[in-house]
Amino acid sequence: MKTKAVRLYGANDLRLEEFELPEINEDEILARVVSDSICMSSHKLALQGAKHKRVRHDLGKKQPIVGHEFCGVIEKAGKKWAGQFRAGDKFAIQPALNYPDASGVAALWAPGYSFEFIGGNATYIIIPKEVMEMNCLLEYRANNFYMGSLAEPVSCIVGAFHAQYHTSNGSYVHSMGIAEGGSMALLAGAGPMGLGAIDYAIHNSRKPSRLVVTDVDEKRLERAAMLLPPQEAKKNGVELSYINTKNIDDPVEHLKYLNEGKLFDDVFVFAPVRPLLEMGGSLLGRDGCLNFFAGPTDPAFSAAFNFYNVHYESHHIVGTSGGNTDDMKESLAMMANGGLNPVFMITHIGGLDAAAKSTIELDKIPGGKKLIYTHKKMELTAIEDFQAKGTEEPFFAVLAEICTRHKGLWNEEAEKYLLENAPSI
């Protein structure tokens, strides 16, 4: 079977190509990808090329398919999996396989980085045995595909919240998770992942009593406040504030003021910016936990941290790269029951022909998540630009009308229309 896919050849060298997939082995699965959400981690992969830690091949000989936030339909299961997975089943993928190497240590292999025949930016893929053996091929039952593509980024947020920990005086036991009923600050938190963190902080059963979200982009803050208003947070027992720190002389003191003069239990940093990370450290109260959520591209990235407070105030740092399978399952369950609705992460829609350029230029494209429909040909377009494009192209006029009825958000009706009417790649 032929597939069309975006493959990595080197730094800033992504190519959309058509090639033949081999016949599947009895321990593999053939699948059709429908949607893939472009992740900043894929942008970092494109920037670093062969230097990226998850690249496992000589790129001159084998090229991995990029993209790891994908959802699709099983076409054919090999003999080993035929009783567990059937043709027609929808699936989502947990790319953090943690598959053990020969020494028993979890390796960094992951779909979208390390494998020749599996990645999100493709029409058809072969799912290798490692995915099933690690229980990372997950059943997806919703009537859409875009939520399945958001399950992986949401699981990263879920995992980060679970990775937080706190202690009690005289005890060495780590109480995992955010401080329940405590105070939380999300720095640079009005981007797509920050929005997901706000949503989870408000609607999860373990939540803070006070949540402060900062950013320096007023437009992003306004959109965040519209989508996740303080009134909604208050209904769920959370006092939520959005703050633009761009022109505040002493943002640490200002945020302390908003927290009744106190420092914070949990601080998340959503941008790999040294002053922001150091500000996060200054906001920690006793036994405070700093989560460095944003992964830097520079392997030498560092920032100052107050080790006096590590010793005397029990300050500590955590960082997670992706979520685990349980985090993914929690994400899918919360989306299925309406506890989370991360669709507001999505701001742009495109076809497979837009994936390579969009991945390379992701840091220069404003907005949130860029959603790719892999069997379609469509330039990457902001949802807010559908109406303007619709004056010349009826296809976009219909999409604009549908999204307007859904508060300007991507939705099941819009996806169905796109899948039925957008040109094939």
| Number of E-state strands | 18
**Total of DSSP H or I helical runs spanning 4+ residues:** 14
Question: Percentage of helical residues?
Answer: 25-40%
* Morphology: globular
Write down the overall mean pLDDT: 95
Strand content: 15-25%
Poorly predicted sequence stretches spanning 5 or more consecutive residues: none
N- to C-terminal separation? 16 Å
Q: How would a textbook summarize the main sheet?
A: 8 strands, mixed
Structural class: alpha/beta
Alpha carbon gyration radius: 22 Å
Structure description:
The chain is α/β, with parallel strands linked by helices. Helix content is 30%, strand content 23%. It has helices at 40-48, 129-133, 146-163, 192-203, 218-227, 230-235, 251-258, 274-282, 307-312, 325-336, 355-360, 386-390, 394-405, 412-421, and strands spanning 2-10, 13-20, 29-38, 70-77, 90-93, 124-127, 137-139, 165-166, 175-176, 183-187, 210-215, 239-244, 264-269, 284-292, 316-318, 346-351, 369-373, 381-382. Strands 3, 4, 5, 6, 7, 16, 17 and 18 form an eight-stranded mixed beta sheet that branches. The chain has a six-stranded parallel beta sheet with strand order 12-11-10-13-14-15, sandwiched between helices. Helix 3 packs across helix 4 and helix 13 (394-405) runs antiparallel to helix 14.
